[in-house]
Design a protein that fits this description.
The chain has 232 residues and is an alpha+beta fold. The protein contains six helices and seven strands. It is 29% helix and 22% strand. β1 and β2 form a beta hairpin.
Length: 232
C-alpha cells in the first residue's frame, strides 16, 4: 500500500492505493457564514479542480488504479473518494425561530429543501459536489448548540440550526454506505457525524491485463483493415 498526505487551505487530503484500488479521503472546513454559499462552492472547486497531490509516475499503476486517465494528482483521479467535515452549508430563507420550531417538529424534509448544499446540487450543473452522493439525512441539524447543552444557539447572534457537518462519497458501484448518523456529544457547539461504508477492492492480474490488451489491439487492427476494404 502506498500513501501520501497533503494539507491545503483548510483541507486535509489523504490518498492511498490498496491492492489496485485508489482511494482519496478529504477532510475540509469550508467558508463560514449564512450568506457565503458562493465562497463555499469556490472552496470545493479549488480542492477538486487543483493538482494537489504528487503524480504517480508508474504507468501500470495509473492504468490499474486510477480513473479517467488520471495520474493521481487530483482528487477526482481516484476510484473511491470520501469527503467530510464542517462544510458550513446553511438553511436559506427561513428565520431562526422557524427553523428551530420545524426541527422540534422533525419537519426535516421542509428544511432540507432549503439546505444550501442540496440546493446547489439541484440548481447548478457546474457544482463540483454533484459528482458525489450523500445518503438521506434523518437526523436533526448538527449546528449550532450552546456547549454542554441540547439548546440551539442562544447567544446574541442566535444562529439558525443547520446541517453543517456532512459526509459525501463517490465511487460508482464500488462503495456502499451502511450508516450515516449524528452523535450526542456535547463538548462542542457542533454534534459530530459519522458514516460507515463497505468498499469493494480490486486486485489486477498484470499477466491477464496484458493478454487482454494485446487481444484488444488485435481486434482494433482487424476492424481497421475491414473498414479499409469496405471503403475501397
Amino acid at each position: 500500500m502506498t500513501s501520501s498526505t497533503l494539507t491545503l487551505q483548510g483541507a486535509l487530503i489523504v490518498r492511498f492505493v490498496l491492492d489496485d484500488t485508489s482511494m482519496c479521503f478529504i477532510n475540509c472546513h469550508l467558508a463560514a457564514g449564512q450568506t457565503q454559499t458562493k465562497d463555499r462552492n469556490a472552496d470545493i472547486a479549488a480542492i477538486l479542480d487543483s493538482s494537489l497531490l504528487p503524480a504517480v509516475r508508474d504507468s501500470s499503476v495509473r492504468q490499474d488504479s486510477y480513473v479517467g486517465g488520471g495520474d493521481g494528482s487530483m482528487v477526482m483521479d481516484h476510484e473511491i473518494c470520501i469527503l467530510n467535515g464542517d462544510l458550513n452549508y446553511r438553511i436559506d430563507t427561513m428565520g431562526r425561530d422557524t427553523v428551530v420550531r420545524d426541527v422540534k417538529a422533525r419537519n426535516f424534509d421542509k428544511l432540507l429543501d432549503r439546505d444550501q448544499l442540496i440546493a446547489s446540487r439541484r440548481k447548478h450543473p457546474w457544482f463540483k459536489l454533484r459528482a458525489f452522493q450523500e445518503s438521506p439525512i434523518t437526523f436533526a441539524p448538527t449546528y449550532k448548540y450552546d456547549v454542554g447543552t441540547d439548546n440551539y444557539d442562544s447567544s446574541e447572534k442566535k444562529r439558525a440550526p443547520a446541517w453543517c457537518d456532512r459526509v459525501l462519497f463517490r465511487g460508482r458501484d464500488r462503495i456502499q454506505e451502511l450508516d450515516y448518523r449524528r452523535h450526542e456529544v456535547r463538548v462542542s457547539d457542533h454534534r459530530p457525524v459519522t458514516a460507515s461504508f463497505e468498499i469493494f477492492i480490486k486486485t489486477m492480474s498484470a499477466e491477464k491485463r496484458d493478454l487482454k490488451w494485446a487481444e484488444s489491439l488485435q481486434q482494433m487492427a482487424e476492424r481497421k483493415q475491414r473498414l479499409v476494404r469496405e471503403a475501397r
